[in-house]
Design a protein that fits this description.
The protein is of the alpha+beta class. It has 26 helices and 15 strands.
């Protein structure tokens, strides 16, 4: 599971965009930004996107062997970049290649509004890894005409015809992931996990007949394949060497083999070896074996996430999107935060869950703050801020999990400037001062509690199927909301002060509660067009959590809706009672998951998480017009340059920074374009 904004995806970046005053950094002319006195976090801004840079502090403290390991793992990740594009939509690669050729070769007027609109459209596609918005899932609408694009194609001898051209301008495939109620979610989702004629019923019937050799350790059927119909018969196209995406996978394997050769220890090397075998065979038992080995391999300075992992882009939650994150341990911060892992059983024992839903033994939960050295696929340019893996419930229960907080990513967000939105949407000066003093700490702790305690907590009732089977299209938002609620419940608890994590638990808890409610009921709405429903899983969970506790606390005026000077605010009057409500909702969400109660999750999400108060939404959008900073942020990656001697041996690896977003995107397409346009 990943924590994104992506809460930026979930909570942190959802709150982050409301913190402070925007400072626009100046771009630098040199590529070696790491050595400049003032690091420029800001690259550029366009549409609703802000592009940032991040540093790799401590790089020079790694040995050359460790630096090689990071370099090889980063190259492995980038080798699979085009997989994510093709997974997102079947025409993405064809469209990207055509538009990039136009961008690189057009010699006409580049000062016109049409050309500027074309540039912005292409940048938006780069950011989203395709023609659908990375967050809303809506198809991105160009602000230039089809005639203008035809003229650009003709001027640059570029070919883009048929459906791949038409879909840019028409209403076809308008939603990458359609999570609406009472529709055929698979049939109406443009994501390329399924053939264009595959339905919800097809998917459910196909996997109902899949029986794992060990029912106590169910395999992740569907995770690494595309489901299509051939002559009316359903068939999986497996991602593997020699199979679907084989050309890119072979490149991934090549770099992973280099990485295995410089592994820090046997456990790490064995895990990489299993990942290589999985890529070669596509065997899901090998995938589980790899995850068990990877979870247990906790020693060393370097770690990574690589493969087909998160299932948010599948409307039914089966298929994994390709992603890669390469990370270096931040030992100082990890030591400070490891206290959560060490006390995981206390949190489980003292949670408000029903006794039968609690784990008797929470095993193997490791928590580290890490420094990101490179990202690709579903993690880039739009990145998570926290990750907890593996996702299989049985591995979490029997072996444990790894939770990481991406420390340098969070640092970059916090130092890239702020927006002034906080002052606009807080209810009073007390709330403002609490956020300024404790907001960042509250965010960090919520990320940690969400990942370490939240995703690791609770258990399914015996005989209940995997959550993706029982809760279907609501599985992801229920799980993210459940983990959020674990964090919220314990953020307002003296245990945090007892463990030495905070100096004033009430102040931190109040800041966390203020920020969550403010975001869930108001400020996250700046990401939606007026009239839209909430679609994205993390946005939904923030709304249904906030709306539920608001409604249940009305009688006691726990959260008060205040109107002042024509503006709406939400003020928490009773933090203790709100803490109790979060506990009640946590108990219920765990019951839903443990029992596989589809009717209850449908009522919860549809009743509180989908529809938007249109009056408040219109007001929020109007109040937000005064702020110029974009609501979404993402990153270019540092560039690792391997310097070699005359014999071809790597003698050092230098960290540099890209000058521009478009420069990195074009370089990636040139260097890591291993797939054909049609797969």
């Amino acid at each position: 599971m990943k924590l994104k904004f992506i809460l930026v995806c979930a909570v942190m970046a959802g709150i982050m965009f409301s913190c402070g005053e925007d400072k626009k950094g100046e771009n630098t002319d040199t590529t070696d930004v790491e050595k400049t006195k003032e690091f420029s976090f800001n690259v550029e801004q366009f549409a609703d996107i802000k592009i940032l840079r991040y540093q790799i502090p401590g790089w020079e403290n790694l040995t050359l062997k460790e630096q090689k390991l990071v370099y090889y793992l980063t190259q492995a990740g980038l080798a699979g970049r085009d997989i994510m594009w093709d997974q997102n939509y079947r025409h993405n690669l064809k469209i990207r290649h055509a538009l990039e050729n136009v961008y690189a070769n057009y010699g006409g007027d580049k000062t016109s509004n049409d050309w500027k609109a074309f540039e912005t459209y292409l940048k938006r596609l780069w950011f989203s890894n395709g023609i659908h918005h990375h967050y809303s899932n809506d198809k991105i609408k160009p602000e230039f005409s089809s005639d203008y694009l035809q003229s650009l194609l003709a001027d640059t001898n570029t070919t883009l015809e048929g459906e791949a051209f038409d879909v840019i301008f028409n209403d076809k495939d308008s939603k990458k992931v359609n999570q609406a109620k009472d529709v055929d979610n698979v049939l109406l989702s443009a994501v390329n996990f399924y053939g264009p004629d595959v339905t919800n019923a097809d998917v459910e019937s196909f996997y109902k007949n899949k029986v794992s050799p060990n029912s106590e350790r169910p395999l992740s059927y569907g995770l690494n394949s595309q489901l299509v119909k051939e002559d009316g018969v359903l068939k999986e196209r497996v991602y593997k060497s020699g199979g679907l995406y084989g050309a890119a996978i072979d490149e991934i394997v090549k770099w992973l083999e280099f990485a295995q050769g410089v592994a820090e220890n046997k456990a790490q090397g064995d895990a990489i070896g299993l990942l290589i075998e999985y890529y070669k065979t596509g065997d899901l038992q090998t995938w589980d074996d790899y995850n068990v080995a990877w979870t247990a391999a906790t020693a060393g300075n370097v770690d990574y996430i690589n493969s087909f992992i998160e299932v948010y882009n599948d409307p039914l939650g089966y298929r994994g999107s390709y992603e890669n994150i390469v990370q270096i341990n931040d030992f100082d911060m990890s030591k400070k935060m490891a206290v959560l892992s060490d006390n995981a059983q206390w949190f489980e024992d003292n949670s408000p869950l029903m006794d039968e839903h609690k784990k008797d033994s929470v095993v193997g939960v490791t928590y580290k703050v890490v420094t990101v050295a490179g990202e690709a696929g579903d993690a880039s340019p739009s990145t998570p801020i926290g990750v907890n893996l593996p996702n299989a419930n049985w591995i979490r229960k029997e072996v444990g999990s790894k939770s990481v907080s991406l420390g340098n990513i969070i640092h970059a967000y916090n130092n890239a400037g702020s927006t002034g939105r906080l002052k606009e949407f807080v209810h009073d000066e007390e709330e403002y001062e609490l956020e300024k003093a404790y907001g960042q700490l509250a965010d960090k702790l919520h990320t940690a509690l969400h990942e370490v305690i939240g995703h690791a907590s609770g258990q399914l009732n015996k005989g209940v199927g995997e959550t993706k089977e029982t809760l279907k299209n609501y599985a992801s938002t229920l799980e993210e909301g459940r983990a959020d609620l674990v964090g919220l419940y314990y953020l307002y608890n003296p245990k945090l002060q007892e463990l030495g994590l905070v100096e004033d638990w009430k102040a931190v808890g109040k800041a966390a509660y203020d920020g969550y409610i403010r975001n869930g009921l108001m400020t996250q709405l700046i990401r939606l067009n007026l009239g839209d429903d909430v679609e994205e899983a993390h946005m939904r969970n923030r709304q249904w959590v906030s709306a539920w506790v608001f409604e249940k606390g009305l009688e006691d005026n726990v959260i008060e809706k205040v109107t002042r000077d024509g503006k709406t605010y939400f003020n928490i009057n009773d933090y203790e009672k709100l803490h109790e409500l979060f506990g009640q909702l946590l108990r219920e969400t765990q019951r839903i998951k443990s029992e596989g109660d589809f009717e209850a999750v449908e009522a919860l999400v549809e009743g509180y998480g989908v529809k938007v108060d249109q009056d408040i939404h219109a007001e929020v959008l109007e109040r937000n017009k005064q702020f110029t900073s974009a609501p979404y942020s993402g990153f270019v990656n540092p560039v690792l340059v391997a310097e070699k001697n005359d014999d071809g041996d790597i003698t050092s690896i230098k960290v540099t920074q890209p000058d521009t977003f478009e420069g990195q995107m074009l370089e990636y397409s040139k260097t890591y374009g291993f797939l054909p346009e049609e797969n």
